[in-house]
Amino acid sequence: MGLYWVFLWLLTPVAMVLHFVFCGLGLIWYTPVKLMASGSSKYRILQPRYPAFPPFWTGQYWVRMRLRSKQTCEFAFGLAQLLAP
Question: Which regions span the lipid bilayer (predicted)?
Answer without folding.
Answer: 6-30
